[in-house]
């Protein structure tokens, strides 16, 4: 049984540093992937209040929408399309300060203004991405990158 998330104040790095052990606790002993992805996005959304937080998982030639929090979103994204597809193809975290300036950005919502997409690696291959959207410009930086990369590493993929 999960305990309520303890909402943290302080700098963004402080917030991540306190959130990570809580996420580790949420995942501990639970083998179900959907349950774990769902709790990770819920914890991030609750702590940071971002517009949209969700996973896309690689299925064949596409990323397919997984557990998320926020408005309904595009279900399928092709390899190298949009920010998510670029993160998959380039196998690196993409920080987009202004989505309107990213060629090929896929606008699931006109309210999304900036975005970070973190690839998830298993056995040196990208198996999915964590996508976070903000309704503010310039929301994400290398602090988010550092900690979101750590968070996706906590998840066990079967
Ligand atoms: N903007 C993303 C699509 C996913 S949504 O933001 C939820 C992209 O360009 O890949």
Task: Provide structural commentary.
- The chain has 158 residues and is of the alpha+beta class.
- The protein has a single domain (12-154), classed as Beta-Lactamase.
- Helices cover 34% and strands 26% of the residues.
- The chain has helices at 12-27, 33-48, 82-90, 142-153; strands at 52-59, 62-69, 76-78, 94-96, 114-122, 125-134.
- The chain has a six-stranded antiparallel sheet, sandwiched between helices.
- Strand 2 (62-69) and strand 3 (76-78) form a beta hairpin.
- 31% of the residues are buried.
- The mean pLDDT is 95.
- It binds methionine sulfoxide.
Strand-helix topology:
Layout: H1 12-27, H2 33-48, E1 52-59, E2 62-69, E3 76-78, H3 82-90, E4 94-96, E5 114-122, E6 125-134, H4 142-153
Antiparallel strand pairs: 1-2, 1-6, 2-3, 4-5, 5-6
The protein binds methionine sulfoxide.
Summarize the structure.
This protein has 158 residues and is α+β, with helices and mostly antiparallel strands. It is built from four helices and six strands.
Q: What's the total count of β strands?
A: 6
pLDDT < 50 runs, ≥5 residues: none
Remind me, CATH topology? Beta-Lactamase
Q: What is the percentage of strand-forming residues?
A: 25-35%
Structural class designation: alpha+beta
**H/E element string?**
HHEEEHEEEH
Q: How many domains, as an integer?
A: 1
How much helicity do the residues have? 25-40%
Largest sheet: 6 strands, antiparallel
Mean pLDDT over the full residue set: 95
Q: Which overall shape is indicated by the principal axes computed on the Cα atoms?
A: globular
The CATH superfamily bears the name GAF domain
Output the radius of gyration: 15 Å
Given this structure, which CATH class is correct? Answer: Alpha Beta
Order the strands across the largest sheet as they lie in space.
Answer: 3-2-1-6-5-4
């Amino acid at each position: 049984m999960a305990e309520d998330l303890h909402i943290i104040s302080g700098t963004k790095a402080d917030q991540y540093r306190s959130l990570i052990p809580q996420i580790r606790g949420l995942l501990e002993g639970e083998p179900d992937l959907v349950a774990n992805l769902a709790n990770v996005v819920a914890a991030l959304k609750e702590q940071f209040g971002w517009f949209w937080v969700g996973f896309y998982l690689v299925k064949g030639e596409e990323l397919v929408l997984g557990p998320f929090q926020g408005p309904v979103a595009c279900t399928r994204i092709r390899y190298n399309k949009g920010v998510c597809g670029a993160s998959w193809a380039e196998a690196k975290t993409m920080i987009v300060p202004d989505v309107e300036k990213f060629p090929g950005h896929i606008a699931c919502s006109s309210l999304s203004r900036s975005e970070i997409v973190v690839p998830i690696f298993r056995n040196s291959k990208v198996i999915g991405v964590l996508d976070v959207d903000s309704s503010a410009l310039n929301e994400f930086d290398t602090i988010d990158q550092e900690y979101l990369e750590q968070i996706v590493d906590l998840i066990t993929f079967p």
